[in-house]
């Protein structure tokens, strides 16, 4: 009798039960054993005690109950009848947010007020470093310090005099770099560039969020749920601060928000979309892959899923809207690199986890390596330095990149000035050999690199707070002084930054600003979207980004989890909607 009642209350398929077990076990493991790596010196060796295993089982059980509760909540919310009766004023207030133009006006005013202390922009390390290199140091002395921020194998530059690199995306690099260059040439200040880039980023974010919010909110029947999810988007400091952050990830997120809205349109109309949808999707995907290179792989996987479901009704629209911008960008960048106009990105960027594992090995077992292996590795890295500069938080020191100046030979990792393609030939073989000798070290390096993303008790690395200070003249970026100094050196900005930083770094008060919280919630929501292909495709890009953050150069980075944060809130807006059939089949 009780089983029949339970079955009527929760209609759960076998695939949902399977993923409830897998996800709860996975999250339980990382929230218990991941704690060992909060200080980044932990190890899995001898850690599987009876006590920890019991905690693992208990934690997994809690996550499983949470997923069952979310399934129940979704079905209860979706099957509730009609809209709650409201007073006229309150009802009109909720209808106000169904209009994208009204939402745009509201966001412009509210976010504009919140962002006053941070005018004109929050400029990230990447942009400031690019400004410093491309418009001052390089023009003054094109030999010194060119590669300190963005080191790249010199063999890639040997056949060209170009300094335009695809390391951080060629098109976005040109957009930022030319804006800064022309600003300096015309006004002898970077302030016009800051204003131009800040306004364009903010304007695009307003357009994307207003369209997405109107698309999602008008589908929600329960007014309280509508307001709750709306507040999660509008009043989250991480979200509105990133609307004026000059960095590739925030720009991608704005385009991704628009992509999610267009995807829901596709589902609502069963693939029968018009030319406006095609053009919007084309521009959205194009901006996304301009912002971050890995978006191309993500959208390609999503496209395959779309074509499986809509191959009979929308295959042309999908190919034009998604495949065409992917192919177009590939051809453009390939052509620029083939002709020597753009320098290819260094392959070391794709080996972040591997080089971190080798570095940790050299830290713990510096003498347990053959002379031949040491000699071959030494062609790529300063082997004696690897263990000393290894930092589980970030792979930049091993790559000889980042914000620090790696002119000191004792702080150098990657030999970017002498390494050749042939030097990488035996790297994978050496990597496998070292793994076979001490596999626990490699697992520890992997855990230290990614455990924080799935452990909600681990406070993320606050990229946003850091970038508030990245553009301060006091950090040594003297080239930014003219016209910008006072904007970044005033008590108003300092107090606002300190308040944000203080709140973010409190485990529970700052929880809704932590990317790893939203990653965990996104996984907990997955069983709801496993009813059929259509519903699964809604969460697929979130899942793909979850895999991508593991490969990012920064451990538990707020910036890399930003797309997941916003995406999961949009997923929450799918619960209890008017058109829920695809979630309940």
TrEMBL record:
Keyword Transmembrane helix: yes
Top-level taxon: Bacteria
Membrane-traversing stretches: 12-33, 53-73, 103-125, 191-211, 223-244, 250-267, 279-308, 320-344, 511-530, 560-577
Keywords: Membrane, Transmembrane, Transmembrane helix
Protein name, entry field: Uncharacterized protein
Organism (species): Convivina intestini
């Amino acid at each position: 009798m009780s089983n029949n009642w339970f079955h009527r209350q929760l209609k759960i398929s076998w695939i949902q039960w399977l993923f409830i077990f897998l996800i709860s076990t996975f999250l339980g493991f990382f929230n218990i054993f991941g704690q060992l790596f909060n200080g980044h010196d932990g190890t899995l060796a001898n850690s599987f005690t009876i006590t920890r295993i019991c905690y693992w089982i208990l934690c997994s059980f809690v996550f499983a109950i949470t997923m069952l509760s979310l399934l129940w909540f979704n079905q209860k919310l979706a099957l509730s009848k009609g809209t709650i009766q409201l007073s006229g004023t309150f009802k009109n207030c909720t209808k106000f947010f169904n209009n994208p133009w009204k939402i745009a006006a509201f966001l412009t005013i509210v976010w504009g007020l919140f962002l006053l202390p941070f005018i004109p922009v929050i400029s990230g390390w990447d942009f400031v470093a690019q400004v410093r290199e491309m418009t001052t140091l390089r023009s003054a002395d094109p030999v010194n310090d060119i590669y300190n921020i963005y080191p790249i194998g010199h063999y890639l530059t040997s056949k060209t005099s170009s300094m335009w690199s695809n390391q951080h995306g060629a098109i976005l690099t040109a957009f930022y770099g030319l804006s800064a260059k022309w600003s300096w040439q015309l006004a002898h200040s970077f302030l016009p560039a800051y204003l131009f880039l800040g306004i364009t980023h903010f304007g695009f974010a307003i357009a994307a969020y207003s369209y997405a919010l109107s698309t999602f909110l008008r589908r929600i029947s329960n007014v309280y749920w509508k307001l709750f999810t709306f507040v999660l988007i509008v009043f989250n400091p991480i979200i509105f601060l990133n609307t004026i952050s000059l960095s590739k990830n925030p720009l991608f997120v704005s385009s991704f928000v628009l992509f999610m809205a267009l995807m829901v349109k596709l589902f609502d109309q069963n693939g029968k979309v018009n030319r406006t949808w095609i053009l919007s999707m084309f521009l959205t995907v194009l901006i996304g892959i301009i912002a971050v290179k890995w978006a191309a792989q993500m959208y390609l996987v999503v496209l395959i899923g779309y074509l499986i479901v809509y191959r009979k009704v929308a295959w042309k629209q999908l190919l034009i809207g998604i495949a065409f911008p992917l192919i177009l960008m590939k051809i453009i960048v390939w052509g620029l690199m083939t002709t020597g106009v753009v320098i290819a990105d260094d392959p070391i960027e794709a080996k972040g986890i591997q080089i971190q594992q080798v570095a940790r090995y050299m830290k713990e077992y510096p003498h347990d390596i053959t002379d031949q292996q040491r000699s071959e590795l030494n062609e790529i890295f300063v082997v004696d330095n690897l263990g000393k500069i290894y930092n589980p938080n970030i792979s930049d020191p091993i790559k000889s990149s980042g914000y620090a100046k790696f002119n000191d030979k004792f702080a150098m990792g990657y030999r970017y000035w002498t390494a050749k393609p042939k030097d990488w030939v035996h790297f994978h073989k050496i990597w496998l050999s070292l793994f076979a000798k001490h596999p626990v070290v490699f697992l520890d390096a992997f855990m230290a690199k990614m455990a924080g993303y799935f452990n909600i008790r681990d406070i993320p690395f606050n990229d946003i707070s850091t970038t508030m200070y990245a553009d301060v003249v006091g950090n040594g970026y003297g080239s930014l002084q003219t016209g910008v100094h006072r904007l970044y050196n005033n008590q108003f900005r300092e107090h606002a930054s300190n308040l944000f930083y203080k709140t973010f770094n409190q485990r529970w008060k700052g929880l809704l600003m932590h990317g790893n919280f939203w990653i965990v919630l996104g996984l907990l929501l997955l069983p709801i979207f496993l009813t059929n292909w259509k519903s699964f495709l809604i969460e697929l890009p979130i899942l793909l980004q979850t895999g991508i953050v593991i490969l990012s150069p920064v451990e538990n980075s707020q910036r890399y989890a930003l797309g997941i944060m916003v995406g999961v809130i949009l997923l929450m807006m799918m619960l209890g909607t008017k058109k829920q059939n695809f979630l309940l089949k």
